[in-house]
Structures are given as structure tokens and as C-alpha cells.
């Protein structure tokens, strides 16, 4: 199984980049992983922006991918809950799990419908760059839970 993190937005600021790279490297000890940044759409209408970004997102994912959408309307999970979700997808022979961070206006309905799971990190709203760091840390934490390593303490 592989992981892919797909995010609509600009490149990470240096203070975020270092953390994202560190956790990405740690995840790589468990699963192959790659990041793909999608440039925000250049339009003024939010509906048009979501439509254009959806086209780019669909190009970045494959038909067989398990798509986990990060969205404020999703279900909140504990860290062990995320580990359980990843294990369930692995048990279902998922080839690649894609974690998707949509654009500033969210994602189009067809992307929401394509997602197998919609996950909310918090009821709070975070800048997209910070979400990338939180995502990388939480996926690493989930991997360490699955490996029975001591990073996560209950």
C-alpha cells in the first residue's frame, strides 16, 4: 500500500515545510508516500474555482485509489481511530490511499461523492499549510500505533 497527499494551495512556508518533510520521511519508514500540490484555480467565482480545481484533482487520483477527503463537514477521528481506518483500507487491499486537502472554497460535489471517507480534523478552521503539517503528523502517529511503537501514548 502507498499513501499520497494531494493539496490544493501554494507551497509551504519554510517553517511548515521543515515539519512536513520530517513527518513525511518518518511515514516513509512504513509506506511509500508522495505529495502533490495543485495550484489554486484562477477565477473569481467560488463555484467556478471548485469546478476547475476538481478537474485537476481528478487528474491526480486514479480510479482505484481510496480517497479520504479532509473537510470540515467530515467525521472527526481520534488518532487510534485514524489508525483503524488505515488498517481497514489495508485489509481491503487498497493499493493507494489518497488524503485530499481541497482549496479555499472546499471541493466540488463530484469530489465529495468520489471520496470513500470524509474526515474533519477539528471544528476549527486552519490554514491549508498547517493542515498539511497536522495531516502528516497524524498519519505518522497512526502508522506508529499500527506498528505498536511508542510515539503515541494512551
Description:
By secondary structure, the chain is of the alpha/beta class. It has a single domain, classed as SPOUT methyltransferase, trefoil knot domain (Alpha/beta knot, 3-Layer(aba) Sandwich). The protein is built from five helices and five strands; from the N terminus they run E-H-E-H-E-H-E-H-E-H. Helix 1 links the parallel strand 1 and strand 2. It is globular.
Architecture, according to CATH? 3-Layer(aba) Sandwich
Binned strand content = 15-25%
| Mean of all residue-level pLDDT scores | 95
Shape: globular
> What is the subunit arrangement here?
single chain
Q: Please describe the biggest sheet, giving its number of strands, its sense, and whether it closes into a barrel.
A: 5 strands, parallel
How widely separated are the two ends? 27 Å
Number of strands: 5
Amino acid at each position: 500500500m502507498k499513501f499520497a497527499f494531494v493539496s490544493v494551495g501554494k507551497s509551504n512556508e519554510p517553517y511548515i515545510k521543515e515539519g512536513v518533510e520530517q513527518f513525511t520521511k518518518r511515514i516513509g519508514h512504513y509506506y511509500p508516500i508522495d505529495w502533490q500540490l495543485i495550484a489554486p484555480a484562477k477565477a473569481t467565482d467560488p463555484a467556478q474555482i471548485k469546478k476547475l480545481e476538481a478537474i485537476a484533482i481528478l487528474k491526480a487520483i486514479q480510479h482505484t485509489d481510496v480517497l479520504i477527503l479532509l473537510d470540515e463537514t467530515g467525521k472527526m477521528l481520534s488518532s487510534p481511530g485514524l489508525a483503524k481506518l488505515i488498517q481497514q483500507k489495508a485489509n481491503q487491499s487498497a493499493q493507494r490511499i489518497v488524503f485530499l486537502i481541497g482549496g479555499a472554497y472546499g471541493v466540488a460535489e463530484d469530489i465529495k461523492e468520489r471520496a470513500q471517507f470524509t474526515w474533519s480534523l477539528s471544528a476549527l478552521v486552519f490554514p491549508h499549510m498547517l493542515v498539511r503539517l497536522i495531516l502528516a503528523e497524524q498519519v505518522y502517529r497512526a502508522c506508529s500505533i499500527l506498528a505498536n511503537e511508542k510515539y503515541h501514548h494512551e
